[in-house]
Design goal:
single chain; 326 residues; mainly alpha; Four Helix Bundle (Hemerythrin (Met), subunit A); 2 domains; 10 helices; 83% helix; 0% strand; extended; Alpha-catenin/vinculin-like_sf; beta-catenin binding; Alpha_catenin; Vinculin/catenin; actin filament binding
């Protein structure tokens, strides 16, 4: 490239030298592109290796038989997950697809949340293996972490996440039967999503996105039903019907993603600092400050109610809305 460039600069009017310089520039650009692709592949391979290592440690955690073994495994798991988290954080900044960014953010937050639950539940199970509830808590945390790791793998490998959406054949469509049924199902989905959007714990930005995605989903369903009506008597479905199906699937996934992020926000905001209200209450009581103790007691009660609300009702409504989308 350097030689061809020098030759062209020495005689810019030469068509042959210009062509050689252009070919050399294209070859250089192609080589740089291949280098960047290879570097990205190496980066992805290293992230996948860390994820697989975390999976192996998780499987060993379930079979740990002593507290010492459990502590050693958790130390290894924490170190491995820190590497995964840092690499995923950098990867999010490099991605151009907002959907993939949100999915990785959700998986990252879900890992952080359930790792502590896994640690607590596993420790409790080592002490009380006869208690079924403790084992169920441990298994639940294990499954949640496994799902989060699998979501990371799917995104890194370019696979679709939760894409198991089925569609009706045009020949089976009955407007009088299926339109009311699908519209009713849609309203149930919107109702569940609205319950999350209207929650005082939902951030304003996320609330707006949920409302927008509900409207987009409504429009996508109407477009799909219109295409079904047009294709009822046809032997082969039209391309517009296929596009409408794909569009509806994308809108459903978008709404599901924002609902998940909203729930992650709820949990992270509620459990970010659970000790401060209690410590303030204890401190004011120790100082015999009656007014401050009453106020801090109210604040502690409100915070405790919020924790119960987040852990119970809000999560169940989110599960309902998300599962309906499938």
């Amino acid at each position: 490239m350097v030689g061809a460039g020098h030759d062209f600069v020495a005689e810019t009017s030469s068509t042959e030298r210009r062509s050689r310089a252009i070919r050399a520039a294209r070859n250089l650009l192609g080589a740089v592109a291949r280098l960047l692709i290879m570097a990205d592949m190496v980066d992805v391979h290293m992230m996948l290796a860390n994820v697989n290592k975390a999976r192996e440690i998780m499987d060993r955690l379930v079979t740990a038989e002593s507290k010492q073994e459990l502590c050693e495994l958790f130390g290894s798991l924490q170190s491995c997950l820190e590497q995964v988290d840092e690499s995923i954080r950098r990867r999010i900044l490099e991605l151009r697809d907002p959907a993939e960014q949100d999915d990785l953010q959700a998986a990252r937050a879900w890992l952080k949340l359930n790792t502590n639950i896994m640690c607590t539940a596993s420790t409790a199970y080592i002490r009380h293996p006869e208690v079924d509830q403790v084992r169920m808590n441990r298994d639940f945390a294990h499954s949640q972490i496994t799902q989060a790791l699998q979501a990371i793998v799917d995104i890194l490998q370019g696979n679709a996440v939760n894409s198991d959406i089925s569609y009706m054949e045009p020949s089976s469509y009955n407007d009088h039967l299926h339109r009311p049924e699908l519209e009713s199902l849609l309203e149930k989905i919107v109702s569940g999503a609205a319950a999350i959007a209207d929650s005082e714990n939902t951030r304003d930005e996320r609330k707006k996105r949920i409302v927008d995605e509900c409207n987009h989903l409504r429009q996508a369903l109407q477009d799909l039903l219109t295409e079904y009506e047009k294709n009822c008597g046809r032997a082969e479905p039209s391309e517009d019907l296929d596009l409408a199906m794909v569009h509806l699937g994308h809108k459903a996934k978008d709404l599901r993603r924002h609902l998940r992020r909203a729930i992650v926000d709820h949990v992270s905001d509620a459990f970010l600092d659970t000790s401060t209200p209690l410590m303030m209450l204890i401190e004011s009581a120790q100082k015999h400050e009656e007014v401050a103790t009453v106020e801090n007691g109210k604040m502690f009660q409100e915070h405790a109610n919020k924790l119960v609300q987040i852990a119970g009702g809000k999560q169940s409504r989110a599960d309902f809305a998300v599962e309906e989308l499938l």
